Every structure is written in C-alpha cells, then in structure tokens.
UniProtKB/TrEMBL annotation:
Active site: 60
Top EC group: lyase
Entry protein name: Methylglyoxal synthase
GO MF, one example: methylglyoxal synthase activity
EC number(s) on file: 4.2.3.3
Function, as annotated: Catalyzes the formation of methylglyoxal from dihydroxyacetone phosphate.
Domain MGS-like span(s) in chain numbering: 1-140
Gene it is expressed from: mgsA
Domain of life: Bacteria
Reactions listed under catalytic activity: dihydroxyacetone phosphate = methylglyoxal + phosphate
Family (UniProt): Belongs to the methylglyoxal synthase family.
Amino acid sequence: MNIALIAHDKKKDDMINFSIAYSHILNSHQLFATGTTGKLISKATGLNIHKFQSGPLGGDQQIGAMIANNKMDMVIFFRDPLTAQPHEPDVSALMRLCDVYQIPLATNIAASEIFLHGLERGDLEWREILKERQQKEGNN
C-alpha cells in the first residue's frame, strides 16, 4: 500500500517516534512524505521514503494529486490543531480529498496505531480490490 506521512512542525518528533515504533509495519509498504518530515523519518529509521516538497511549498498538494489519481491508500497526518498554519487551505483540501476518495486519514497517534494494526491484519485489502475494479472499468 502507498502511505503518506505528514507532520506539522510541533508534531514532527511524535511522527519520528511513531515511525520508529512501527517501522516493522511501515517497511513493507511504499512510503511518501512531505519534505522535512520525510527526511527526518528516513534519518531516524532508515526507511525508504519518497519525499515531496515541504507542506507549505506544495507537498500537501502533491500528495493530494496522488489521492485524486487513486495512487494513495492511506494518509497519516499528525496535525497541530493549536497552531495556525500558513498553508491551512492546502491542509483542508488534502483532508477533503481523503473524504471524497475514501482514503483512510489518521490525524493523531491513536488513530494511526489503529490503522497500522489493521493494515498488519489485512483489514484494508478493500483498497486493493477497489483499485483492481477501477482499473478494469477504465480498460473497458
């Protein structure tokens, strides 16, 4: 599965610790991240991560484009709800795209743990089935 990892500045340490704790699950999947977050996670864990631009420079939109093109399966986004973000419209657009395209979105550690445990059990296989059906419909 393709998984996006995003964290606002005050949540980057949480994302790093989360990625270390769950690296045994994350390493079995294709990982994508906004620039700084990806660099920090990769350095701390050794995980292979495709890094986009930083969020304020368009990274959120790049991940949004993957969602809109059915190339993202899950988004883990540690948001800082107590700090105003200069790119808040991009954040809102990304979250809206997750809702429109039925992409699981976790915005805190608790939800992210549930998602990864579900992923480990195979609970999200419906994404693969949906992709296969969409590809068949597109080819007809």
